Structure formats: C-alpha cells, structure tokens
Amino acid sequence: MNTNSEELYLEAEADIKNNHYADAFKKYESILYEEPDSAPAHNSLGWLYKTQFDDYAKAENHFLTAVKCDPLYPHSYFHIAALFMDMERFDELNLHLEKCLRIRTIDKSWVYGRYALSEELRLNFEKAVYYFEKAILASQNDEKIKDYRQDIERCEMKMEIRKKHAAAG
User: Fold this and answer.
1) What whole-number distance in Å separates Cα of residue 39 and Cα of residue 44?
2) What does the alpha-carbon distance between residue 154 and residue 72 come to, in Å, rounded to a whole number?
3) CB pairs under 8 A, 24+ apart, for 6-12?
4) CB pairs under 8 A, 24+ apart, for 152-158?
5) Which of 15, 67, 100, 116 could form a disulfide with 131 if both were Cys (CB 3.0 to 4.6 A apart)?
6) Which residues 6+ apart lie within 8 Å of 144 measured at CB?
7) 115, 131 contact by CB (below 8 A)
8) How do residues 36-93 score in pLDDT, each as one tens digit?
C-alpha cells in the first residue's frame, strides 16, 4: 500500500470502530480502485459484507481475493474460517484449517482451537477436547491456555449431559 492508501485504510478502520460503516465502505472501495491487490482492504470489505449486510457470497469473494493478493496476510484466513463455521460448511472448514497449518503467519493454537470448535458444534466432544489440548500445546499465551482449559471443561460437561440423557432413554 502506498502512504495515501495506508492513511485511508487507518481512517476506515477508525470509522468501523465508531460504527461509521458507510464511510469505511467508501474508503475501502477507494483504496481498491487505486490498489486492487490490497489484501487488508479486501479483507475489511469482506468483513463489512459479512457482518453488516449478511452477504456471505461477496464476503467470501473478498476474503479469498485477499488471500490471493497476500498469502501471508493472516486476517483473511481467520474470517474465512468464521464464515465456513457460520455456514456449517465443515468439510471446507477442515480443508481451510489444513492450509492454515502451513501458513507461517498464523498462530497454530488458533487453528487447533477452530478444529475443536468445529467438532464441538458437531457434538463430537471427545475430538473437540483432543483439539483443545493440541491448542494448549501449541500456545504460549497464558490467557489463551486458560480459555482452552475452560473450553475443555465445557465439552466435558456436555459429555456428562449426553451420557445422562443416553441413560435416561
């Protein structure tokens, strides 16, 4: 990004923080007009389409374009994973997460945490615990580790509930 685009991008990010989505949208489009291969602008436009318009197709297109423009820009990968999870496209999510494990700018504990959440959503609690444990092993952040431990406790509670309901009938 050139200096002008970088300033415009930072202004757009501030607009988002202040809930001025229309202003941010115009600024991202302006950046892309000048620099069509701006991964951050594509990523942020994708976020706007997903969260403000519920237009998952346009959001996905911008996220994927951001990845093509800069394969090491991590934020687009996070948003693609969230989109796949929201849409319950679990097979695509798993393929995406496999790719994420090979991207050096992506926190591997995050990847394992997403695998775990995917398994939890599909009621595969044992597998979810396994992936949360892998997330702990890959993390060096005490707060994240604490969160993953709480995630494991939640899955263990769900396993107990499932066992109780299975016994009842």
Assistant:
1) 9
2) 33
3) 9/38, 9/40, 9/41, 9/44, 12/41, 12/44
4) 154/120, 155/116, 155/120, 155/125, 155/128, 155/129, 156/125, 156/129, 158/120, 158/123, 158/125
5) 116
6) 109, 113, 135
7) yes
8) 999 999 999 999 999 999 999 999 999 999 999 999 999 999 999 999 999 999 999 9
Enter the tokens of residue 114: 């997403």
pLDDT tens figures, 118-154: 999 999 999 999 999 999 999 999 999 999 999 999 9
Domains detected in the chain: 1-89 (1.25.40.10), 107-169 (no CATH)
Q: Is 166 exposed, middle or buried (0-12, 13-18, 19+ CB in 10 A)?
A: exposed
